[in-house]
Amino acid sequence: MRTKEEWDRTFSKLADVGTFALGALSVALGIMALSGPRLGQRIYYEDGQYLVAVRYPGQWNELRDFVQPDNPDVIAIYSQYGPDPWGLYDFVCRNISYRRDIGEFWQTPSETLQGYGDCEDSSLLLCSLLRNFSDAHVALGSFQGWGHAWVVNKEGEILEATYTNARRVPDPGSYEPYCLFNESEVIELWPGALGEVFELGRNEVTKLSLMAEAIGDEVPPECPSCWPLMVVGLVTGGILGTGFATILQKGE
Q: What is the pTM of this model?
């Protein structure tokens, strides 16, 4: 049987090991916080990658990964309508109902093909379809001062994927691109332009009203049945991502 002195020595050694392990963990977390993105940051550049925080808390995605011409769901639609740029444009306009984000949440093309999305979502889908046979980019920038996304085809023409049917944009001067990208490249029109996109104001009601006024049409209807699904998705993703975000915060 161990004496009290022996137990004390054992606990002392265990305490030393535990203290060392906690110290090492603190150093590791500190390095992560100093070398990685800060909590609340939306854009992060690393080793030639353009990382954006546009989905779940604590999750970073490479900007180019959102354009997915090889996605099987995209290829299935392309096989029905392509290679017809106007037909693909019209398909997206007629089949994707407009739905505002809660905060900022970019969908994949497969998610958008469920039938709803906002300007980024519909533009990412349309660009993914067009990239199967043609040059195209998603443009991030300003529409009359409000944050917006659209598609630019190989001729430089603006394709407004939030319209309810394919049509030419009557007011191209209202669109100011900051950054263009597809699955192969990112083009910032000036240094730091991508970060400035996320500093633009967001007011979807005002923006859609301005678009409707320009084309003499009604504001595109939203998809109210999609809101409960979006809330559930964000809450679930938030629970999964909050742990990582909290670790980074504590390490600062």
A: 0.75
